Amino acid sequence: MRDSSGRRVLIVDDSPAFTEALKRLVMAEGFTAEVVHDSEAVVGAVAQFTPDVILLDVELPGASGFEVCRRLKRNEATRLIPVVLLTGLVGREHRLAGIEAGADDFLTKPFDSSELTARVRSLSRLKRYTDELESAESVIVSLALTVEARDAYTEGHCERLSTYAVALGRAIGLPADDLWALRKGGLLHDVGKVGIPDAILLKQGKLTAEEYEIVKAHTVIGERLCAGMRSLALVRPIIRQHHERLDGRGYPDGLKGNAISLLAQIIGVVDAFDAMTTDRPYRTSLGLERALEELRGDAAKGAMDPMLVNQFIDLAPGLCRPAPAPSAAGGATQAVAAPVAMSAGPSGLRLVG
Predict the structure, then answer these.
(1) Is 90 exceeded by the pLDDT of residue 272?
(2) DSSP designation for 232
(3) 8-12 and 32-36 strand pairing
């Protein structure tokens, strides 16, 4: 018997005799196994049992295994769980349907028991590696939220950015992978501020030129923190480039036009908006209408993409909700959701976001 270190297999099939035999087989390999017999029970079983691999019959009462697999792969909480489709159907069209549903493997009944257990072991190892990557990613996200928590005036900023950015990305038709990157980018865009001293980051008045240069380094620090994490490959350009401007007057690299990632441009638009509509120690919220006018002005001056700005202007009234803001005594009195202009040097407005 091989020691699989408590890895869990969920078996989904409507035949009690078959599921019992399959359960004995995977348990002999050191796995813990759970069984359900219909498609309706799968979601609840996944939530309770948190399997590392799912063995899923295609022909189930109710929704087919293809549809169940599709639902699991569309759900952010379950999309990384390996799914092996089991079926007596041997046609090419059925394999294509399984691939399109997002299945990680496909076994035809009757199958070789050694082949099945080998595949389960392989996929459970893959899930373990994925879990480790997710754990590392979770640490980075927690770090980003800790940075946000250092300043009561930016409470909720990252979550709002994620919401705004995903809404804008969806409005312009971006694919699911890009929407995921925008979600993560909203949470992680300012993670590099962990390397900025509180005396500068929380300063009430204008920044000196030297202080401003230190703050600008948060984009580079943040990218370096996420370096080497393949799962964040789409997010790293967002972190580094979200303060770049199309006219080349942004930082840290002074990029122009299409040299700036589209996803970073989206985060840049919503970050500016959120900063302008949030009360800060150095000024009160500009309010929704004035913030949108500022965005129009930045687009007209060539700092932002007019298409992105116009799309967001259409979305903004429906996205913004009143939110409590900290008073001088730490209480709550704030305006609409969150923004501040992109330009922010020591002689003007403070840094965005």
Answers:
(1) yes
(2) G
(3) parallel
CATH topology of domain 8-130: Rossmann fold (3.40.50)
Q: Which residues contact 156 (CB under 8 A, 6 or more apart)?
A: 323, 338
Cβ-based neighbours of 34, under 8 Å, separated by 6 or more: 8, 9, 10, 11, 45, 49, 51
**Host H or E run for residue 90:** none
pTM of the prediction?
Answer: 0.61
pLDDT at 115: 87
CATH superfamily of 150-319: Hypothetical protein af1432 (1.10.3210.10)
In which residue are the tokens 């799968």 written? 42
Give all strands of the β-sheet with 83-87 in edge-to-edge order: 32-36, 8-12, 53-57, 83-87, 105-108
Annotate 159-196 with DSSP letters as a single string.
HHHHHHHHHHHHHTT--HHHHHHHHHHHHHTTGGGGGS
The residues with which 83 forms a beta bridge, in sequence order, are 54
DSSP conformation letters of 32-64: EEEEE-SGGGHHHHHHHH--SEEEEESS-SSS-
- Residue 297: what pLDDT? 96
pLDDT higher than threshold 90 for residue 270 = yes
Look at 41-45, 241-245, 270-274, 308-312 and tell me which has the smallest mean pLDDT.
41-45
Domain spans of the chain, in order of start: 8-130, 150-319
Q: Identify residue 191 by its one-letter amino acid code.
A: V
Give the phi and the psi of residue 280 in degrees, each rounded to 5: -130, 165
Spatial neighbors of 65 by CB under 8 A, at least 6 apart, are 12, 39, 56, 57, 58, 59, 85, 86, 87
Which tokens go with 50? Answer: 């948190």
For tokens 């943040």, the residue is 222
Beta bridge partners of 35: 11
